[in-house]
Amino acid sequence: xxxTAREAVDIFKIWKTLVPAKIQASLTAAAExxxxxxxxxxxxxxxxxxxxxxxxxxxKERYDWPANxxxxxxxxxxxxxxxxxxxxxxxxxxxNPAMWFHETGTRYMEKRGVxxxxxxxxxxxxxxxxxxxxxxxxxxxxIKYNLxxxxxx
Length: 153
Prior knowledge:
The protein is mainly alpha-helical. It has six helices and two strands; from the N terminus they run H-H-H-E-E-H-H-H. The chain has helices at residues 5-41, 54-62, 76-79, 98-104, 115-121, 123-149, and strands at 81-86, 89-94. A two-stranded antiparallel ribbon has the order 1-2. Helix 1 crosses helix 5 and helix 1 packs antiparallel against helix 6.
């Protein structure tokens, strides 16, 4: 479908106001999904994670930390998960330095990804959120423009 220069400018004006708000709403929803999932997996054994070592279980018992609750001692790691929203971007992160070691593992500590697991588990829903939003913007704004602005319809 070909548009005149005037029609293209009108479509751009519609997109200029619709796109940022709708994309940001979808990014916010996606970040909230990942953040909640990441907070929820801490303290609960996950099938993707190795079992706790006997030495870790003994340490948890000695300090009266929750038993069989991986990555949970006093709740500081769970509380360290945040999300930051920027135009066209949403970031879920932890400001706890230990999270990096859990995400990647070390020579002495097996990998127990929290943020990566949360993202992986919500990938389909995030794709659906962002894809649906994009399709709705493309088709809704185009149909709305065509039905209200074009004289030849």
